[in-house]
Amino acid sequence: MSTIAIVGAGPQLGRAIGRRFAVEGFDVALIARNRTTLQAVADDLSDTGVRVEVFPADVTDRPALHAALTAAEERLGPIDVLEYSPAPSPADLRRAPLVEATKVTVDSVLAQLDLYLLGGVAAVQHVLPGMLARGTGTVLVSSGAGSGPMIAPHVANVQVATGGMRNWILNLHAALSGTGVYAAHVAIAAFIGQGGHASQPRTIADAYWRLHTGRTEAELVIQDLPDDYLERGLADKFVES
After folding, report:
1. Which SS3 state, helix, strand or coil, does residue 213 take?
2. What is the pTM of this model?
3. What is the top-level taxon of the source organism (predicted)?
């Protein structure tokens, strides 16, 4: 039985990715901060017939993240697929607000580096040695498409961090050639669950499965933004009513 660990698992994309891999026989480890949210996702996947376990951890707390991944390996076996897609909560955005390009400061970037780049490095480096030793494994790292394929100046401090993460994963993809381990970046230009067919979690999860099985592309760009995306701002899930 294979295992996927979804870091940053939420009720939309994380749940859809979990279900897509579960129907292929993967056990599922769900990792994120909120135990209640994780358990709701796990309960939703309970009809898949695989083991689904929750491991609460904050990706900015590196020892906690390491402990969660270790516990997942102990409970479910070696992690064959790592999917990393953390997202800020409204509380995160109050504490570390988004900053447009002309107003970026060192302080405005540090929190974003912690969430996206450093958390991603920690998660990937936890599973990568085992994957290399086994000669097989998949690393899929996700971010908004402002990480490189498109321009999003209204969230420039985030893009400093996600751009660094994207660059690293593209280089990792090249470095892993011939090892049996595959890494790819997914750049999501969509309001997940709010737009057309291409924005729906199930559609995006199918694309992740194709990446895992195809094992060729260094990057997948999912483009389904409306023309007024710059004026529209954040997806609804990040905006408190």
Report:
1. helix
2. 0.91
3. Bacteria
